[in-house]
Amino acid sequence: MTGDRDVPSGGGTREKIAEAAIRVIAQQGFDVVSVRSVAQESGLSAGTVQYHFRTRRDLLVAALERSVERQTERVVAARGLPGYRASLCRALRELLPLEGVRHEDAAVWVSYGAAASTRDWLAELYWQAMRTFHDLVRAALERAQQDGKLRDGLTPETAAPLVTALVNGLTIDHLNAPEEVRARVETALDRGLRLILSD
Q1: 66 and 20 in contact (C-beta within 8 Å)?
Q2: Is pTM beyond 0.85 here?
Q3: How far apart are CA 90 and CA 88, in angstroms?
Q4: Could you report the per-residue pLDDT of 182-196, keeping only the tens digit for each?
Q5: N or C: which end of the chain has fewer CB within 10 A?
């Protein structure tokens, strides 16, 4: 481990490696991920990376799991504004390709979605992450329905895929858009949610 910079122990090292893999994917692409590229990005030795993640596939799984974990943490922390639509909009903005880690995680999500279309082992993992997203949205919509705020003709089960499609579509459309276009993505999210929620 000589030469490793600021190496935390245990789970901290694994998290540091997973986050380095996220940055490699966001900056260079899914196919660039390797023990060597992640070691370079993390500042750890290749041996340390390989000790924690034996294969490239292990690294890719860890990166997706950590990205989903980061997104979920941000979404949960962002909830709480008065009004169902305002609260949901504030939470879901954490998934959009805005600045910093939001942009990283959005790039990872799009990369994995594309990669999952040709890799069976990844398709199941990606679908599980999508179901987690769908379930969080459905729970919010169930509360809205109880207070009569879900638009007529919709149920939480039918509306949740519309919300996830809205977020995924906006993410794809805005990921590489010029900054002035990306700045309007939150307005587009709110407009879309107005078709689903009444407040």
Answers
A1: no
A2: yes
A3: 5
A4: 889 999 999 999 999
A5: N
